[in-house]
Design goal:
By secondary structure, this protein is mainly α. It has 20 helices and no strands. The protein has a single domain, classed as Growth Hormone, Chain: A. α12 packs antiparallel against α13. This is MFS general substrate transporter.
């Protein structure tokens, strides 16, 4: 069987593979395979938000200390995206990073087992750090891969559709947590045993998935492919030195601020509703979180639909502006009103992360792999903002008042959405990719143009032969 043939895990970045010219039909299989990864880290992230409150209950730790889970998880991202995963990506390619990330994820899930058994919060944070390195590796490769695999003009739509399955994972995890982690009997030992089995199942699944990736013939996208794409769209910004790719660094800053705010809100959502909504316990709070994550997933599908008719940069500006508008009332409102504000905020958060990735990578060309590491490294905001929110919540004994922290970070991220819509150096590059014709027909734009040119030359030559008798003798010579 061809599936058992020797698989190469290294492709030269100087080699054109034509993967950047894939049509939508040709890119369906690799996109579907990589989209499974988005569900995986959505599920893992959703478990983390639920475990945050679970460990406060079972281990008696403060809100600020429980944020150590987020700090360990997202603190690993820059180590992966700017370190080991990015090195593998630039020297070997996307496929080895997928396998590497899945293996790290599996190892971290196995390490979590004895840590949960011995109720070691510090040990579990170490396991989460390993898992974070695995998921950071997957994000370093998967986000840019989804962005560049297929027609460039649909990049924002592709990554938002894939990220929508991330949202599905964040819905499933809190629902599972509400029944598995927060038991009505109050038996903490039984609950911790259930957590162990969940992580063992995760380990088995991701190791199997790593084997599937090894044997799957997914196309590799090289720097040469991305340079060609930048040239074809006339967005030749990769000719500048890497240090002058200011749009990239601004996108990374926006990602840091936005992700920090998003993670902080989700991480303390259960705290918020149990404190502000009378009669709400942790189990019910986890169910409410699942509903909020459902709104998040719905927002992504809605955003993709809007992007079909409206430029993605405008949809991004509208969604991020709404995040600022709706998070503000949650600071002062209580009960169902305050919770509904968070629901709406999560709905509008939905497209921001993937759209920042897609817009930030526009025109990077040969710097695409290196640049993706910086944008994904911005996810480390998820390690910084939640502890800040937790500290403010402990200081004022109110999670609601602490929602002013993510509000401030949303405003900082808003600067990028303004620039990408109103600053020509940002806007023009994004728009050139939106109108690109690469990948719309099999064979690529260049083949199509060359074919048309050859056909035209053939017609001219034929025409010359037909009318050669009409030309003066001197012109015939």
């Amino acid at each position: 069987m061809t599936i058992f043939k020797k698989n190469s895990l290294k492709t030269s970045d100087h080699q054109r593979t034509r993967a950047a010219e894939l049509t939508l039909r040709q890119s369906i299989y690799p996109l579907c395979l990589v989209t499974i990864l988005f569900f995986l880290w959505g599920f893992s992230y959703g478990l983390l938000d639920t475990l945050n409150k679970h460990f406060q209950n079972t281990l008696g730790i403060t809100r600020a200390r429980s944020s150590g889970l987020q700090a360990a998880y997202f603190g690993a991202y820059p180590l992966a995206s700017l370190g080991h995963a990015n090195w593998i990506l630039r020297h070997y390619g996307y496929k080895p990073v997928f396998i590497w990330g899945l293996c790290l994820y599996g190892v971290g899930a196995l390490v979590a087992w004895p840590c949960i058994l011995h109720k070691s919060f510090g040990g579990f944070c170490a396991a989460i750090f390993i898992i974070g390195n695995g998921l950071g590796s997957l994000e370093t490769a998967a986000n840019p891969y989804i962005t560049v695999c297929g027609p460039p003009r649909y990049a924002e739509m592709r990554i938002n559709i894939s990220q929508a399955f991330n949202g599905v994972g964040t819905v499933v995890a809190p629902v599972l947590g509400s029944y598995v982690f927060f038991l009505k009997t109050g038996d903490d030992t039984k609950a911790l045993t259930n957590v162990q089995w969940v992580y063992l199942a995760i380990a088995c699944f991701v190791f199997i998935l790593a084997a599937v990736f090894y044997f799957s013939p997914i196309p590799e996208i090289t720097d040469a492919d991305m340079q060609f794409q930048a040239e074809e769209t006339h967005a030749n910004t990769d000719v500048k030195p890497f240090r002058k790719q200011y749009r990239l660094f601004h996108a990374a800053f926006a990602q840091f601020c936005y992700t920090g705010a998003q993670v902080a809100i989700a991480g303390y959502f259960i705290n918020y509703v149990t404190e502000t909504r009378p009669g709400t316990d942790s189990s019910l709070g986890a169910k409410f979180l699942a509903g909020a994550q459902g709104a998040f997933a719905l927002g992504r599908f809605t955003g993709v639909g809007l992007m079909k008719f409206i430029r993605p940069r405008w949809v991004f500006l509208f969604y991020l502006t709404c995040c600022i508008i709706f998070i503000a009332p949650s600071i002062t409102q209580r009960g169902n009103t305050g919770m509904s504000m968070l629901y709406v905020t999560l709905f509008f958060e939905s497209i921001c992360f993937p759209t920042i990735v897609a817009l930030g990578m526009r025109g990077l060309g040969k710097y695409s792999k290196r640049g993706s590491g910086f944008i994904v490294g911005g996810v480390s905001g998820g390690a910084c903002v939640p502890p800040l929110l937790g500290a403010v919540a402990d200081l004022h004994n109110s999670t609601a008042k602490a929602m002013s922290v993510p509000l401030a970070f949303f405003v900082a991220a808003w600067s990028y959405s303004l620039c990408v819509n109103f600053v020509p150096a940002y806007r023009d590059v994004a728009d050139k990719f939106t109108t690109a014709k690469i990948g719309l027909q099999e064979g690529g734009v260049r083949d199509e143009e060359n074919g048309a040119k050859s056909s035209q030359e053939g017609e001219i030559k034929k025409d010359d032969v037909e009318h050669v008798d009409d030309l003066p003798p001197k012109e015939i010579m």
